[in-house]
Write a structure and sequence with these properties.
heterodimer; A: alpha/beta; Rossmann fold; 2 domains; four-stranded antiparallel β-sheet; B: mainly alpha; globular; transport (chain A); ABC transporter ATP-binding protein (chain A); nucleotide-binding (chain A); ATP hydrolysis activity (chain A)
Chain lengths: 253, 364
């Protein structure tokens, strides 16, 4: 066999009442690949990530990760196998420091947390990897000890990525890492992702087309939960179907 | 942040050290009842602090904490009854009036009770969890009401308790120092646990279960272990209280007792180390003084509690922190200028290859 995909989603269906959020969706992420998922609001991109992570149960279809069928696994079980996501609307522990948030992910990866006596905040085995992850996403060192509630939106987005990295992912699912970022912050995030590219395969949901077209190896276009086109950035740019279905709709807004 | 915590531990040590002198000072002030009152405070402080592990630590609103408190009490009561009658409990376990036997057994039974009730209730969350913990506690309450062999409604009296290491437990000061020592040990344990890896996971569960799942943590076992630890603490308090009051009745398990423990935690300061002890002291003292003034003392207590909750955010410990200029746990709002950047202006970036531009609004 040549290269087997890291992630393979086959014929995924999810309905919310009458709304088909995911409509017969199939996609793959190959080793080392950065696969971008784009589409208008409500196309079902976040819902797809939710199903891949096991937060939402699909009505039909199968999800395979590293050759194993994970469709029935719980979210924590998937994370332990190497799936990790960031949230569009940051889900961070507001009372803890930035470092504390990442250290908890390091701890979760290291195994169980049934240790009741030693002070975890002074544990170098947790702190060192946490600090490495924070440095990797470019969060200023002066901000590491700051409670999350005091961090700016841009810093929270960086922290989301650091937490995801600390789980030791073998596939990263990024749900709009640039959402709400300023232009310079967006560029910085793009560079952070570029540095990760090739080492960790990624499925990137993003509306920042500069970032998507400069980073992605492959782009899939989602409309109404269905994949209407998939190909290299060049192919997607030229695809008449994408231009017709996607762009005219955008222009009509 | 760290210096604040240090301060709170210093507070705990200082208060415990001062409290140790109560039996010395009380006779000088000619108020021997003070020692008994202080004993009740120390015992309630243990119970409230154990509830705080769930409430403030893991954000688990357990409304049936009196169940374990009462279980601990009944272990002491029932063992004493069998000690007096000479018959073994269930024909196997001999009775006892020795605190060194009854206290560990009470803690064990409290932990087992919490294990069973927790294992079932923790399958739910939110309002359902509150209701199911309340329901389990009430079930136990009615079970003991109907247990005529152990006094039913009337409860059991305990006399002639065996001395511990030659110390007479009938002596109020001795029992007080034992209770205070156990409170100190318990607070030390809670402090260590809250800073440990386990404590970090628990704090994470309070702040965001979704986040915990996303970093690969199955939260159920952690919540259950917290439940068992808290149940053991409450049972220890219950066992001590029965030694102090020399009496156990189903009232120890009544839902109003669960509510009282909750009030202590919230009044003192949710999620703080010293807070629950302060809350216990405040509530017991208020009850004592007000009930001396009028039989309608609850009529006065209610508004006082409302005022404290309204005006001392973070409870008494929150007020102490503000006065001392310490920092609280979580600021309420984002500081000015730190709000999300919102929509990016189209001119901010070079024109994309596809003229596709959407806002940063949440969507599917």
């Amino acid at each position: 066999m040549a290269e087997a995909p890291v992630l393979s989603v086959a014929r995924l269906v999810k309905r919310f009442g009458g709304l088909v959020a995911t409509d017969d969706l199939s996609l793959e992420v190959m080793p080392g690949e950065l696969h971008a998922l784009i589409g208008p609001n409500g196309a079902g991109k976040t819902t797809a990530i939710g199903q891949i992570m096991g937060e939402i149960t699909p009505d039909a279809g199968a999800i395979r990760f590293l050759g194993e069928d994970i469709t029935a696994l719980s979210t924590p079980a998937r994370v332990r196998r190497g799936l990790s996501r960031t949230f569009q609307i940051t889900q961070l522990l507001e009372d803890d420091t930035a470092e504390g948030n990442v250290a908890l992910a390091v701890q979760a990866r290291a195994g169980h947390g049934f240790r009741f006596w030693r002070n975890a905040a002074r544990d170098a085995r947790l702190r060192e990897p946490a600090r490495a992850a924070l440095a990797q996403v470019g969060l200023a060192e002066a901000r590491w000890e700051v409670p999350v509630a005091d961090l700016s939106h841009g810093e929270r987005k960086q922290l989301e990525l650091a937490v995801a990295l600390a789980t030791g992912p073998r596939l990263l699912l990024l749900d709009e890492p640039m959402a709400g970022l300023g232009a310079s912050e967006s560029l910085r995030m793009t560079e952070v992702l570029r540095a990760l590219k090739g080492r960790i395969p990624m499925l990137l949901v993003e509306h920042d087309m500069d970032a998507v077209f400069s980073l992605a190896d492959r782009i899939s276009v989602l409309v109404y939960g269905h994949c209407v086109a998939s190909g290299s950035p060049h192919q997607i740019r030229q695809d008449p179907q994408v231009r017709a279905a996607y762009l005219s709709e955008e222009e009509g807004v | 942040m760290r210096s604040v915590m240090k301060d709170e531990r210093a507070w705990a040590v200082l208060l415990l050290a001062l409290a140790a002198f109560v039996p010395v000072v009380a006779p000088m002030l000619d108020s021997p009842a003070t020692v008994a009152l202080a004993t009740r405070i120390a015992i309630y402080a243990i119970a409230a602090s154990s509830l705080n592990l769930l409430l403030g630590g893991g954000g688990l609103v357990s409304f049936g904490h009196a169940a374990y408190y009462g279980l601990g009490g009944y272990v002491v009561g029932i063992l004493y009854a069998h000690y007096v009658s000479g018959e073994a409990f269930l024909g196997v376990i001999p009775g006892s009036n020795d605190l060194l036997v009854t206290l560990p057994l009470a803690i064990l039974v409290g932990g087992l009770g919490a294990l069973v009730i927790g294992a079932l209730s923790l399958r739910t969350s939110g309002v359902q969890f509150i209701m199911i913990t309340l329901a389990f506690a009430q079930m136990l309450f009615f079970l003991f009401v109907s247990l005529k062999a152990y006094g039913g409604d009337d409860g059991l009296a305990i006399r002639r308790v065996a001395p511990v290491f030659g110390l007479n437990l009938r002596d109020p000061a001795t029992l007080y120092w034992i209770s205070l020592g156990l409170l100190a040990a318990w607070l030390f344990l809670m402090d260590r646990v809250s800073r440990s890896r386990f404590g970090r996971v628990l704090a994470g569960i309070r702040q965001g279960e979704r986040r915990m799942a996303a970093i690969g943590v199955r939260t159920y076992p952690y919540k259950l272990v917290a439940f068992v630890i808290a149940g053991m603490g409450a049972a220890m308090a219950g066992a001590l209280m029965v030694n102090q009051a020399r009496f156990v009745s189903p009232d120890m398990m009544h839902w109003t007792k669960s509510g009282e423990l909750m009030v202590m935690v919230i009044l003192g300061g949710l999620g703080t180390l010293v807070g629950p002890a302060l809350g216990a002291a405040a509530l017991v003292t208020l009850e004592y003084t007000l009930s001396g003034l009028t039989e309608h003392w609850q009529f006065i207590l209610g508004p006082i509690l409302v005022l404290v909750v309204l005006f001392a955010r973070g409870g008494l410990m929150g007020a102490v922190r503000r006065i001392a200029g310490m920092r609280g746990r979580a600021p309420d709002a984002l500081p000015a200028g730190e709000l999300p950047a919102g929509r990016v202006q189209p001119g901010d970036r070079a024109a994309p290859d596809l003229p596709l531009r959407e806002g940063a609004a949440p969507h599917g």
